[in-house]
Amino acid sequence: MGLAGFFTKVTFTLMLMASHHPPAFTRGLLYPRDSETREVRCLDGMWNFMASETRHPARGIEEKWYEKDLTKVGSCIPMPVPASYNDITTNSSLRDHVGTVWYDRKFFVPHSWSDKLVWIRFSSVHYEAIVWINGNRAVRHEIGHLPFESEVSNFLKFGQENRITVLVDNVLIQTTVPQGNVLELPTDYGMNLVQSYTFDFFNYAGIHRSVHLYTTNKVHIEDVIVSTDIDDTTGIINYRIIANDTDDDDLVAFVQIYDADDNIVATNTTPVNRQATIEIRDVKPWWPYLMHPQPGYLYKMEVFLSTSTVKNVDIYRLKVGIRTLSWNATQFLINGKPIYFRGFGRHEDSDIRGKGLDLALLTRDYDLLRWIGANAYRTSHYPYSEEAMEFADEMGIMIIDECPSVDTTNFNEALLTRHKSSVEQLIHRDKNHPSVIMWSIANEPRTAELAADTYFETVAKFTKMLDPTRPVTAAIAVPLTNDRAARHMDILMFNRYNGWYSNPGELSMISSRVIDEATAWHMKHKKPVLMSEYGADTVEGLHLLPSFVWTEDYQVELFSRHFKAFDILRSRGFFIGEFIWNFADFKTAQTVTRVGGNKKGVFTRSRQPKAVAHHVRRRYFHLAQDLDDVTPPEDLFPYFTDTSSCTQMARDEL
To answer: Which residues are catalytic?
Structure first.
């Protein structure tokens, strides 16, 4: 079968069960939480797994594999969920698989759920999924890293064992988000299909985050929409409780707000599906890490939904941080105070699990962020887990939340539709997180192309329509003189690798170039500027004196040259932040320029510090001390000598 035949098969797989057009607006998808009216059951664990033949990606659809156990279809292997499937086995063909794979498992549903609505919810499947319950198609979703769900009560056998089957397709083409190409190449064994892409991280695939079953009553809370403000010492929570039964005018929502000590500080009762406000006196605002003695302060919002005949038909709880955001031509402010970002670009990436949710790793990462003194990161280059967002809320880490559009090119209507859908799904999921302070609508798009102007104007306007309370940005790598997108952004971010991709080894050609470029961006567009990527690949343990590219010594010196530029730019009043690329080493596709992956991390892939991590820590805490009067950690500088004691000893000898 030629390449055209391959795409015919893939198209058949995706088109057979549903249209290719994504929904205009997302509904529901509250994070699954137990309450008096809701039960949650996790389906994480070992699933059966089978990869389709690359040449026949639609065979499972044609032969209706979803109507029987996968073990009766062919040879299966156990596969952990959540996890990427690529690095679990020693099989290179599975690591590099192009096309569809299948998962299934059994689960039990109790009789007590038979009078409820039962939902299946996936937190992330990459890239595309079709889900069947007991052979019945339940839901299809496109675009990885984002949740989707479906009500499946009619497909379940209550008090019995049930089967869930999932088809996952990892193929990226020019109209997916992100984009890619499938190439047909000759090998020793005939023609083979290879997935190619320009972005610099491995295209991990599979069921990446948790799978939940949960119940609601037939009338239930579908969504909670929150925004906040502060008036002097009074906190204002603007909210809307959305119920699924929009025809019942008698639905009311009783809301209670608790402080961090579980004291009720405010209550309100309003009709559902209408805008409402609740006020909190002597509010404790949400502050970023190292800007306040109690960063990440969260209130608990408790929502009770009642009908005219049934009290508390649904109960849902979520955390709320009260803060204000504002920006102008030179500043970004939280609660009226200017912010200077010091952080990282990151990846959800680890050995064996790939992009699979790993709560132990997530906890380690946030501990390292606090240890190093960072106050922010960008979710490069896709939405991170909901658990990561909750960590950020609680720890006061600011998030530039990025949709999966990376290296965007060949602008067209089909791509635009999916791009807008990825933004809409992201905002719908993360709208209530106080840690989310900007929306990034792309990373390194090809904004020199003529069509980029109208394309990004459309995406930016769409994003602002969905959420006018946060600024819109994008990480731009095209030179200022060629770029057509920055004028549509509220905050300007640029990626540049002086001393690495540009003039490698030339440390004296860094500071002035960073200063000149950042200044030029601001002068042209009159907007705040931050540097969203800079860095150098570094092999752990490699040292040379004088410093040389790829050594830990060179990485330290390259960072120092950037630090000097940043301090000069800070003094000019428009430069608002510095983001290192990258937090930790990560896996990429196989190329001759990547030895085991991208090595620009200040931490190794196993989350151990390189020499530069200590260097960055001293800078970030020095900035915190300078900007917010933070007392640095006692272990920031190792003991060298007590100069006053040495001086006295010398005098005594005289």
So the answer is: 444
